[in-house]
Amino acid sequence: MKEKIIKTAGSIWNVLREKDKVEISRLPKMVGEKTVVVYQAIGWLAREDKIVYHKKGDKTYVALPEHERG
C-alpha cells in the first residue's frame, strides 16, 4: 500500500507541475486512483512540504509551493 501512495503522490505532483492549482476533489479522477489513496498521497506531499493549500469559498485547492516550481 505504501508504494501505491508514493506512486500516487508522484502523479499528483506531476499534475500540479502542469496546473497552477487543482481542486482536491478533482484529483482522484485526474490521477486515476481511489479517493482514499489520493488523500493519503496528499498527506504524504504535505508532510514533505511539497504542496500548499488554498481555500476559496467552500473549495480547497492544492498547488506546488514556490520552491517546487521549476
Q: Estimate percent helicity.
A: 40-55%
CATH H level, superfamily name? Winged helix-like DNA-binding domain superfamily/Winged helix DNA-binding domain
The low-confidence runs, each spanning 5 or more residues with pLDDT under 50, are none
User: What is the annotated CATH architecture?
Assistant: Orthogonal Bundle
Radius of gyration: 11 Å
Strand order of the largest sheet: 1-3-2
Beta-strand percentage range: 15-25%
Order of helices and strands: HEHHEE
> How is the CATH topology named?
Arc Repressor Mutant, subunit A
Largest sheet: 3 strands, antiparallel
How far apart are the termini?
Answer: 30 Å
**Averaging pLDDT over every residue, what do you get?**
95
Q: Classify the secondary structure makeup into a structural class.
A: alpha+beta
Number of strands: 3
The 3D shape can be described as globular
Number of domains: 1
Look at the structure and give the CATH class: Mainly Alpha
Q: What's the number of helices?
A: 3
What does this structure look like?
- The protein has a single domain (2-68), classed as Winged helix-like DNA-binding domain superfamily/Winged helix DNA-binding domain (Arc Repressor Mutant, subunit A), CATH 1.10.10.10.
- It is 50% helix and 17% strand.
- It is built from three helices and three strands.
- It has helices at 2-18, 27-31, 35-47, and strands spanning 22-23, 52-56, 59-63.
- A hairpin with a 2-residue loop joins strand 2 (52-56) and strand 3 (59-63).
- It is globular and about 30 Å long.
- The model has no long low-confidence stretch (mean pLDDT 95).
